[in-house]
Amino acid sequence: MKAIVKPTPELKGTINALSSKNYTTRYMLVGALAEGTSTLLYPAHSEDSDAMRRCIRDLGAIVAEDEEKMTITGFGRNPQVVRELNVGNAGAVLRFLMSVAAFCPELTFVNTYPESLGKRPHSDLITALEQMNVRVDHNGGKLPITIYGGEPRGGKISVSGNVSSQFLSSLLFMTPLLKEDSEIEVLHDLKSKIIVGQTLEVLEQAGIHIEAASDLMRYRIPGGQRYKAQEYTIQGDYPGSAAILAAAAVTGSDVTVHRLEENSKQGERAVVDVLRSMGVPLTHKNGTVHVQGISALKAGEFDGDQFTDAVLAMVAASVFAEGTSRFYNVENLRYKECDRITDFVTELNKAGANVEERQSEIIVHGKPEGVEGGLEIDAHYDHRVIMALTVVGLRSRQGLVIRDAHHVAKSYPHYFEHLLSLGAQIELQD
Hints:
Layout: E1 2-5, E2 10-16, H1 21-33, E3 37-41, H2 47-58, E4 62-65, E5 69-73, E6 84-85, H3 91-100, E7 107-109, H4 123-130, E8 135-139, E9 142-148, E10 155-161, H5 166-174, E11 182-190, H6 193-205, E12 211-212, E13 218-221, E14 231-233, H7 238-250, E15 252-258, H8 271-277, E16 282-285, E17 288-293, E18 301-303, H9 311-318, E19 324-328, H10 342-350, E20 354-358, E21 361-365, E22 375-377, H11 383-395, E23 400-402, H12 415-421, E24 426-429
Parallel strand pairs: 2-15, 3-14, 6-7, 10-11, 18-19, 22-23
Antiparallel strand pairs: 1-23, 1-24, 3-5, 4-5, 7-9, 8-9, 11-13, 12-13, 15-17, 16-17, 19-21, 20-21
Helix pairs in contact: 1-2, 1-6, 3-5, 4-5, 5-6, 7-9, 7-11, 9-11
């Protein structure tokens, strides 16, 4: 599908934020690891949640759902024996389930997206699993990956946090179910510590006890624990909403987004402060963000590791700011559905922006007058790239045509529908 994004001077209206993808997949996993039936209220509907749903069903969970509720009867530490799992293009789902697969005698994760997830590295998690009496066959740390488990053992485990926090989260979900106590040490650095905080929050709600060091680099996990089957309510999603708020920020707008909790542990909550610092006129109270009016946007310097999944949306807004913006500490963006630094910067510059890259930085020389646009650009099969390029297209003089725009459904299936309801001039073509 192509998205033909036309210049749109004003957005106006009210939407409810979609439910959080990160929390939905985590609650689905703890529901599957519980013995009994859990209920999820307002689960996210996206390709990632579809992948988790499909895979936990294959592993023996019983899942029933409607638009606003999902029930999961879990399998505990005894997943059904299955030979293959297809996680689609969902990296977090793959990594979380690689540890769960350690309870299976033999399980292969197939490679159905060789140009996206198939290129992403998982060696750090593989190395950790091999310390736990689990043998792994793999393609240089990439898919396809076969896990030979059955009797994983606890004890002292080390895992690198340099590439992704998902490897650590994967181990934190699995180790409470082992017979032995475990101690996990994080080597080198730990990316996206705030997202690890979300994992720990969900585990605590599920009745799991974990002792975490204050710097989140060391953990003690008692073995022999059981997940509680219970009810969870999914909060609104900041990463997807960041693109909506960025679109409102670069146009003359009166846009209201509900279901964004002020005290959320989502790191991307920081985008409200980022936009405020850029001079965007907005308020945030009672779970509602209201962007009203337009002002000259100001450049700034931002630690992107605090809001990883919203960096691209904020970069898109800064394209139109006065001065030079710098987003630093973002190297982990290179290991997502695409290289979100090189690939995204390339497309922005095609559209007429002036953006540079460093190994772990994106530097934006703002153009308050707007960018030219007027061409067809590549989304690199990445939902975050699609959303951010749409923001740029709305403020361009000639619009943008975004190829493969249907991949936005990975996290935000209603993204274009929501923008259209706010008055965005967008045409979708198969």
